[in-house]
Amino acid sequence: MSTQSTSPSGDAKFNVCRFLRLPQLCSTCVAFSLVADMGTLRGAIGNWSMSFWCVCFAMTFIIALVECCRHPSSFPFFWYNISVTYACYAALICLSASIIYSITYVQFMPYGPNWDRAIAATAFSCIASVLYVIEVAGMRAWYELKEIFFYVHTVRALLKVLETFVAGVIFAFLSNTSLYLHQPALEWCVAVYSICFILAAVVLLLGLAEWEYMLPGPFSIFQLVLSLLSVLLYISALVLWPLYQFSEGFGGQPQRPSDGDCRDELTYDMCAWDQRLAVAVLTAVNLLVYVADLGYWAGQVSVGTEDQPRDSQEVYSPNSDIL
Fold first, then answer.
1. Which of 78, 106, 180, 217 fits a 20 to 30 Å CA distance from 267?
2. Within 10 Å of residue 10's Cβ, how many Cβ atoms?
3. Measured at the alpha carbon of residue 308, what is the angle toward residues 305 and 311, in degrees to the nearest 5?
């Protein structure tokens, strides 16, 4: 039985729009509105967080508009995978914005109206993150898609989501080009982040569009090779980035300065040394995710698991990695 023949009922779609889309829109809208109302006092981190909340609001609004204007049966199958994958990213984005904004900016703000706005914005961002998590976890039950396979509910898809998301946060910190343009080894690290991000994004898109089985060879072998390549590249970045950023022998700065933007008080820009440290930590985190991805696909290859197109299956196989 083809999994693409099943679509959610109109009542299920209405319930999701009513109980999730509107609260998601409201929480993200309130979050960026509160920070925007602070004017120039919101700082660079406030601008960064506000842009993330704006993106989540805009994407959620577009998805809600499309779902309300079209009948469920007119949606292609991959639409449901795309919407739940977006919800997964939105949950991570709102959560990371809440943590980074509160740690790097809110804690240094003096008590007053702006501090109240910042705390409220952080709270609404956390609420939005919870709402997106609920959507990801409850999509199958609400839509009653008993025969539709949600790619993002698998281990391999969640690993790809994490890999691309962590890389996206790294790119946000690397927006300060002065961190790496002075040293070819650091430029290589940026190239590593970019290459691995593109590879992970391509694999994720192949899975969402169900094109992974159109490859000429076994997909498990293909993915194993990509994961091994990404692990090796990230190992080189994990060695070179801290070495050239924090070792005096290679022109780095081992200690956090106490002047300029790194003062323990409210400043407009984020401390450059903190950005270097954040990239180093996130590099290690993403390396662990890639190692887990490599281990997963090594296990698939070792047991001889051969994926088949799901259109030929009644339900996803008993050896499925659905969470």
1. 180
2. 11
3. 150
Residues 227 and 159: beta-carbon distance below 8 Å: no
Which run of H or of E encompasses 244? helix 219-246
Count Cβ atoms below 10 Å from residue 215 Cβ, excluding itself. 12
Rounded to whole angstroms, the Cα distance separating 42 from 117 reads 10
Residue identified by tokens 């040293």 is 183
For 252: left if phi > 0, alpha if psi spans -120 to 50, otherwise beta; the answer is beta
Q: Under a CB-based contact definition with an 8 Å cutoff, are residues 188 and 236 in contact?
A: yes
Reported as a single tens digit per residue, the pLDDT across 259-296 is: 666 766 666 667 888 889 999 999 999 999 999 999 98
The CA R_g of the chain, rounded to the nearest whole Å, is 22
List Cβ neighbours of 256 (8 Å cut-off, separation of 6 or more): 262, 271, 273, 274, 277
Estimate to the nearest angstrom the gap between the alpha carbon of 58 and the chain centroid: 16
Helix or strand holding residue 191 (H, E): helix 184-209
Are 274 and 147 in contact, with CB atoms under 8 Å apart? no
Contacts of 131 (CB under 8 A, 6+ apart): 20, 23, 24, 27
User: Which pLDDT tens digit goes with each residue over 29-74?
Assistant: 999 999 888 876 777 788 888 999 999 999 999 888 887 776 555 5
DSSP-derived 3-state class of residue 180: coil
